[in-house]
Amino acid sequence: MTTEYRALIQAPAPEPGTVDRVKNGTQLIKIAAVWLLIFLLGVAASIVTIAVVNTKDFGPEKTVARYLDALKAGDGGTARGLLNAKIPGANAAALDGKALAQSQKDVKELSIAPSVPTDENTERVTVSYTVTDVPLSTDFVLQKGPKHWLFFDSWEMVPVTLPVINASVVNANQSSINGVEANMPDGKNSFAVFYPGNYELEYRSPLFAAPPVTRTVTGSTEAVSPVSLATGPTSDLLAQVDGTIRKYLDACAKQAVLMPTGCPLNAATNNRVLSSVAWSIVEYPAITITPFGGQWIMAPLKFKAQVAFKEQDLFTGQVSPVKQTSDFSFTTKLTITANNVLVTPVLDF
To answer: With 80 as the cut, is the pLDDT of residue 19 above it?
Structure first.
């Protein structure tokens, strides 16, 4: 009984290699689990990386940033492509190069806010900045484009038409916008511009100039106030004409007669003149040149002159000195060719 009982409860011996196979299977499961975990972590990391890259390098803010960089660099071609801009029938002098880059000089403290969804396919990006210390902002609306490399988003500006600045200039056929010369047929033109930007228009020549006028443009739908360049004579022209008039009057004053020839001076007496006549200009005229009817005219010139001489009364024979100051005036004709001006006195007597 003892021997049989022992035989019944004794476990059979395992086959050779069974234990090793069990251990190997367990290790394989652990290895597979580790690799599965690594794979899942890799997938998660990839998803996070794609999301981060999409936001940082392919988000709507990045498109706006590239557009603003193009403006600053004066790269009008890139800016137009990123903005999806239609150019109206207007002068393009400010759409590239120096004039475009100059438009960004006063745009300071620029910041791009995170995009905000406006509907399923579009988002709005707001850019805040200052121009001459005035806080301003511009909204850009972007829509989703095709994917890059299957995973990465692309964002495109919703197409817009560029705004324009309408300008006119008095008695001139040229002006400049941000330092770039532009033609002004019949004294008028319209300039297409990018935004945001600051644009200065002016007219300047050696003889005539218009003070600069600035317009800040913040968006495509903004109504930009027209620019009217009020041209007037330069200080050099006024000095030149003033010198010519003074020289003319001084020459008149040198004529020792009561009525100098070709001059607006005259004096009269009913008595006999016993001495030479001496004229002197007491007050020279102020020079004022204004536009009229497409021409430049000079306002009537008013001045004061003194005449001095001795006279003898024809009835009493008494000799007495005369010193008399009177007001005089005359007009002139201006003839302007290129950078030269000719002043011709016009006498009414």
So the answer is: no
Do 91 and 182 touch, CB atoms closer than 8 A? Answer: yes
| Interval 83-107 mean pLDDT | 97
* CA–CA distances in Å: residue 232 to residues 103, 177, 211, 229: 26, 18, 9, 9
Q: What percent of the chain has pLDDT over 90?
A: 76
Residue 40 has pLDDT above 70, yes or no: no
For residue 1, what are the CA distances in angstroms to 4, 8, 11, 14, 325? 5, 11, 18, 26, 167
Q: What is the mean pLDDT of residues 181-196?
A: 97
As a whole number of angstroms, the distance between CA 120 and CA 233 comes to 59
Omega before 211 within 30 of 0, i.e. cis: no
Q: Could you report the per-residue pLDDT of 51-78, keeping only the tens digit for each?
A: 444 445 569 999 999 999 999 999 999 9
Please tell me the distance from the alpha carbon of residue 146 to that of residue 258, in angstroms, as a whole number.
Answer: 93
Q: Which of 89, 67, 190 has its CA nearest to residue 139?
A: 67
**172 C-beta neighbours (distance < 10 Å), count:** 18
Residue ranges per structural domain of the chain: 60-233, 235-346
User: What is the rounded distance in angstroms from the CA atom of residue 208 to the CA atom of residue 117?
Assistant: 53
